[in-house]
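All the exercises in this workshop are built on plain-text protein records. Sequence and backbone structure share a record, each on its own labelled line. The question running through the whole workshop is how a given chain folds. The record below serves as our worked example for the rest of this section.
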Amino acid sequence: MPTPPPDAAARRAVAPVICYPNETLPEVPLALYRRARAGARKVAEAVAAPRDACTFRVEAGQFFRITSVEGPQVGDLNLWHADNLDERFYSGKTRALHGTHLTTGERMWSSFPYLRPMATIVEDTLDWYGRDAFGGSVHDVIGTRCDPYTGNLLAGSQYHHCCHSNLTRALAGATGLDREAAERAVHDVLNVFMCTGFTADTGQYFMKASPVRPDDYLEFLAEIDLLGALSACPGGDCSAQHSSDVAVCHPLLVEVFEPEAGALEGWAPPQVNGYDRSHGFSEG
């Protein structure tokens, strides 16, 4: 290890600057959303079985809720525009705009070149958790999704019911895509109910037992027409390991709710990002 320079302490002491101040993001009309949700009726549901995934569709202006129904269980969520799989959830930009974990009033943003809200969290029964003494919090956008490639790299395994594979099978079944095309469309997730953070000493990504209990839920307003896929992670509550058949796992319930006509008066789905996409290329 090289010898620290004489001004090492001064360099470390430089104050950080927030990369993307978010005060100018479009305001979230939570009061409007909650009024609309109060009179909404259930119109559909899907269940992600343990170590498997389900898909669901939500129209713009509808609500969807993910609920732990039997026991502590983590879920991996993918979202796409219902009519354009190229527009998908962008976890990295969502993390840059909101932080490492999401909660009420924060949004899942879509990929370039669209970059617009896909879904807004309107209720989170775990928002009491905050950030614990280890630096852990709930509903992260820092992890990816458990996958067979990393399992093979680290342990030489051939495990087919990790979240990446679950999401691939579910998307293929819902769309008719072949295996390779479906896998290419699967992307980094919102880790619903998962409690994670980074270790203070080594900066490694960690997980710990989720605080989720039966009847806890995370609820969203769909800002655009959505196709969703949710995997009930083979790690169960992610207290010990994932990508195996060892952990106790439970199903997750997805419910879709339709608000009354006119309940979202004044609201409209967000337009795609206004950047002109010229990227500095000369015209002509």
